[in-house]
Amino acid sequence: MKYLFALATIISGIVFFSCRNPEPKPLESGVSLALAEERFNDISNIEYKLELTIPDSLQNDIEGTALISLNKKNSKTPLVLDFVSTTDKIQAVLVNDEKAFFKLENEHLVIPPRFLQKGKNKLEITFILGNGALNRNDNYFYSLFVPARARTAIPCFDQPDLKAKVSYSISMPKNLTAITNGKPEYYEDISKNRKLVSFASSKPISTYLWAFAVGEFKKTTQKRSGREISIYHMETDSNKIIRNTPAIFDQVFHSINWLEDYTEVDFPFSKYDLVCIPSFQFGGMEHPGAVYYRSELLFLSESPTQQQLLRRAQLIAHETAHMWFGDLVTMKWFSGVWQKEVFANFMADKIVEEQFPALNHKLTFLTSHFPASYSVDRTIAANPIQQKLVNLNDAGSMYGNIIYHKAPIMMNQLENLTGKEQLRKGLGKYLKDYSYANATWYDLMEILNDLSEYDLQLWSNTWTYAAGRPIINFNFENKQLVINQQPEYGDTNKVWPQRIQYCRINASEKINEEVELLSAKTAIEDVNIQPEFILPTINEGGYGLFLMDDISLEYAINNIHVLADELARGAMLVQLFENFMHGEIAPSRYLNMLQTMVSNENNEQILTLACNQLVDVFWRFTTEKLRTELGNSIEQTLFNQISIVGSTGTKKLLFNAWSQIVATPSGLKKLKQVIKREKVYGASLSERDVSAAVLNLALKDKTLDQQFVISYAGKLKDEELKNKMLFVSPVFSSDNTDLDKFVTGLQSEANRKQENWVLTALSFLHHPYRNEHSIKYLEVLLDLTETIKETGDIFFPIGWLNNTLGGYGSLEAEKIIDYFFKDNPNYPEDLKRKILQSADMIKRSRMVKDKYLD
């Protein structure tokens, strides 16, 4: 009987356990795609009301209460919120007006199902805000939650496809101003020194678009045609404010009006405020109602360069375009983050055309996007536009030059295929169909396919989902001109469908022709005589490495500066650099060509491109011996041009290039004199112009050191610039222990708070002029990259790597990277890719020097 009883017990136990719900899987840290999909199918109609208490000292903790309402389909499953916190920071959790138990598991706040009900639920969570995404300063702070960092401060559902309305109620000192996504709608004095301001609810937006900035901001407002826009800033130079605000307002109003006309969709949010932040990590961030901008990119110094004016207009247009593309219609998952960035850049290029009628905007498109895209796409670690993402912890790795610059090139190809009007109609329908919701690239392709004669899904496969670029060359085969293309890496059969325009030259005849490349080999009909020379791409259409034959290459090098068409000059300068990077041109030959261009070029956009290349090639692809041979000639060429050109902006452009290159004793002496006078050939230099020159002088003049930089910083009126100079100054110390201490200090998150300052310091620490002394720091800085990703903002890791690795071109530096990967065999793939992208310059520099120099 005992045996039978025991057997029955075992059987009943098996039945009991087999009927129980399976144990829930452990939660991953971050926000996994699996969790996001589960929540999207379970909860809806989310609304947040955030009550924040800002302490009298902005360095102290901020208390918060999150009132969250939502509908839940399944009452038998727990509710999983995202929250990076500890139990001591959570003061109370109420669910449906009753105190609820909860647990914290791997960055999630989990509420058991017994406290929940099917249908509507109300949560009230009282907590201390986390500081990970709150950027604190003495007299202001701001939240920055992109891509999935709202959860580091506030309990929420931190995924882009759970859009919700959000409102704020903020208690704060009376001397402070708060800006949020919504309009202020209620004000109350709650004590002698404190006030309460409540803000209206936003339209449905994703959590990465939440914004609240609090500080001693000044405000200026302008109203046009019933629309009011305000600029909040901390700028102290009244002349700079008076000089810049009219242009800033013009550009914002113009961008909004243009986008309403183009999309036939009204401005989708209740307000547009600009929040100008000193040394902001990005150029801008598109929070609806509170658009952040880096202050110094909007408030320009006197006599700005054409490039600075254009960049400001493009930046404002870019962030404004996000109100429609990204904020109104948002990608479903962050693997599609490029969808919002491609439209913002693509629209920005169109918006600025009317504001800069004198510019060749095809040339603007070419110089803005192609060099930046090639800088990544030429590497063996290039990533596709559409990337894979399984957890939002890695979402920051999606960002880079491919989504910001290759994607607009792809969109330009798409517009050529569909036609401008058809693309405009398709985008208008896309915005209307998915307003305040989420959409994928496939959703847009379906809309556009109905308006196009092409199979756009098929066209999109290579451009969107394949990494890299094609190598394209022209050959004369069997009495016929043939264009071949193949992937730069690998032996796959990928083809990039595109239209290119090239020029064939015979005797005195030049013929420009457009051709469509739809296969690996394209024969050109009716061209049965071999051209003497071929310029393989002469506009903003062709994408890839256009390898030139020796004769055409020599022709292009000798004649680029006399090509009448400025777009052709720009396109050939871009492609000559790519041929140089492929090892087809000797550094001395290329530098001489660039000197000739600088001496003859009247177009400031092309001149900017030539100067950038000149600085890059001079420092990264030469030896000390070659720099000594060519340095004096290049310095004189640049300095003479400063005296010749009439435009103050062009003088500043040339001065900036000259101050970066100058290294001879006579040149450094001239630089000292310019810094002392703060003028160069009649052109007054701003504090920022002179500060950059001071750092270049301190780098290369062995009689100067950290104290010289500190002494100059003490004279500056701009407090933010002064603090930046002081932060960077240890890099110029003559005492190696100071350098050791500075690099060791970067291991502390507090010392990396101002990311732009850190990147400037790294660029000088690892400058080719001195990198043989700094190479010992490479390994420790590579070791920090994972931490940089975890604690920094989205552009910090790639900036950290570019400024750390970019100055090197030696076998020793290559070996350090190789050993680093051998020592870390399980290193995260996304960061490994970033390191290899940044290290590409090291390999190319060594290859070019090994081929052409002793």
**What would the principal axes of the Cα set say about the shape?**
globular
How many beta-strand runs? 31
What's the average pLDDT?
Answer: 94
At CATH level 2, the architecture of the domain at 33-296 is Sandwich
CATH topology of the domain at 33-296, what is it called?
Immunoglobulin-like
CATH hierarchy, class of the domain at 33-296: Mainly Beta
Structural class: alpha+beta
CATH superfamily of the domain at 33-296, please? tricorn interacting facor f3 domain
**What does the radius of gyration come to?**
29 Å
The DSSP helix count reads 29
| Strand proportion | 15-25%
Biggest pleated sheet: 8 strands, mixed
Q: What topology, given as strand order, has the largest sheet?
A: 5-4-8-2-1-11-14-13
The termini sit apart by 95 Å
- Helicity, as a percent range: 40-55%
State the assembly state of the protein chains.
single chain
Describe this structure in words.
This protein is an alpha+beta fold. Among the domains are: 33-296, tricorn interacting facor f3 domain (Immunoglobulin-like, Sandwich); 325-465, Neutral Protease Domain 2 (Neutral Protease, domain 2), CATH 1.10.390; 735-854. The protein is 44% helix and 19% strand. The strands form eight sheets. It has an eight-stranded mixed sheet. A five-stranded mixed sheet has the order 16-17-18-20-19. A hairpin with a 2-residue loop joins strand 4 and strand 5 (98-99). Helix 14 (587-600) packs antiparallel against helix 15 (604-620), helix 14 (587-600) runs parallel beside helix 16 and helix 26 (785-791) packs antiparallel against helix 27. The longest helix has 26 residues, at 238-263. The chain is globular, with a radius of gyration of 29 Å.
